[in-house]
């Protein structure tokens, strides 16, 4: 595809929202683990390990060494310059993309991103994370990202930029849900008939903003199978795999409705097969191996789709 301003702006919108969604999910998980780390009565066998495995490139040996080290985790996740997925670095990347798309985003959204940028670059932030202020900082950042999502929803026009930003956002959210779900099913060999109690699943559900919904959905299904029903197949849960895939499909339809390129049709069909493989899975009779395969295959196919989507729309050569 030829170099054009639309491609560059679309690229910026796609990655702006993807970086912000990644940061939002990471902070929610960090806040969950941080608060629960004070609960000494809970038998926590993983500590911060699921967070570090998905959101960092630390070698497994080091993750095992620091998985219970709250001070290290807070600083490494929030403001470490060497961690390319730290909150600080992700906000910097998001701001760069927002700057490149400034004529397509609203003044309110730019000002909020800029405010986050300056807060994350405060020289005294690392030292504050070593004090009792750490809880307030994490709480502030979580609220800032809730506010970001609110500003995004209320002020942004629903044009092509919105479609690209929404696709980026929900690709990221879907990958987060899959990876965090794998982090809790892999240690129990994806055993859907196991007897893990609610305390075991609480960390996963809180990390995906799904604990309250889970408690309200009364059922006699054992937790190991019921959690799968919510995080993968529940169309009413905003972080479920099927919900995010359906939203991606909606925005793809908007992008492709007037596009007759064969590459666009191929990409749309590729995503349709991905979505159908989840949509038509019979979760009532799901086996342990099928659960593992659904998570692995969906993750692999979604990463490939994201790569192919970027090549189609954001290739400047």
What is the helix tally?
15
Q: In terms of structural class, how would the helical and strand content be classed?
A: mainly alpha
Assembly form of the protein: single chain
Largest beta sheet, briefly?
none
Mean pLDDT over the full residue set: 93
Distance between the termini: 6 Å
What is the gyration radius calculated from CA atoms? 20 Å
Q: Total number of β-strand segments?
A: 0
Shape: globular
| SSE series | HHHHHHHHHHHHHHH
Helix percentage: over 70%
* Poorly predicted runs: 1-5
Give the percentage of residues in beta strands. Answer: under 5%
Note down, in words, how this protein is organized:
This protein is mainly α. The protein has helices at 5-36, 49-55, 60-66, 70-78, 87-100, 107-120, 125-128, 134-155, 160-185, 198-207, 211-216, 223-233, 241-256, 262-279, 288-314.
């Amino acid at each position: 595809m030829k170099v054009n301003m639309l491609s560059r702006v679309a690229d910026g919108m796609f990655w702006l929202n993807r970086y912000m969604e990644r940061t939002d999910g990471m902070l929610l998980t960090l806040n969950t683990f941080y608060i629960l780390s004070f609960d000494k009565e809970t038998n926590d066998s993983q500590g911060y390990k699921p967070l570090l495995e998905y959101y960092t490139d630390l070698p497994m040996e080091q993750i095992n060494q620091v998985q219970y080290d709250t001070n290290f985790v807070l600083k490494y996740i929030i403001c470490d310059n060497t961690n390319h997925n730290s909150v600080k670095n992700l906000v910097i990347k998001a701001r760069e993309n927002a700057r490149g798309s400034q004529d397509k985003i609203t003044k309110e959204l730019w000002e909020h991103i800029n405010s986050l940028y300056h807060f994350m670059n405060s020289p005294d932030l690392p030292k504050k994370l070593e004090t009792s202020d750490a809880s307030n900082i994490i709480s502030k950042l979580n609220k800032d990202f809730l506010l970001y999502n609110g500003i995004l929803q209320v002020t942004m026009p629903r044009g092509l930029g919105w479609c690209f930003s929404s696709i980026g956002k929900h690709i990221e959210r879907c990958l987060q849900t899959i990876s965090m779900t794998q982090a809790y099913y892999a240690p129990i060999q994806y055993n859907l008939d196991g007897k893990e109690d609610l305390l075991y699943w609480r960390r996963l559900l809180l990390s995906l903003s799904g604990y309250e919904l889970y408690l309200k959905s009364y059922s006699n299904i054992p937790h190991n199978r019921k959690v799968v029903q919510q995080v993968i197949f529940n169309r009413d849960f905003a972080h479920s795999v099927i919900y995010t895939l359906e939203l991606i499909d909606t925005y793809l339809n908007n992008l492709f409705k007037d596009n007759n390129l064969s590459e666009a049709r191929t990409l749309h069909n590729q995503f349709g097969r991905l979505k159908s493989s989840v949509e038509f899975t019979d979760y009532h009779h799901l086996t342990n191996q099928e659960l593992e395969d659904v998570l692995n295959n969906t993750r692999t196919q979604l990463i490939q789709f994201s790569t192919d989507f970027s090549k189609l729309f954001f290739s400047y050569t």
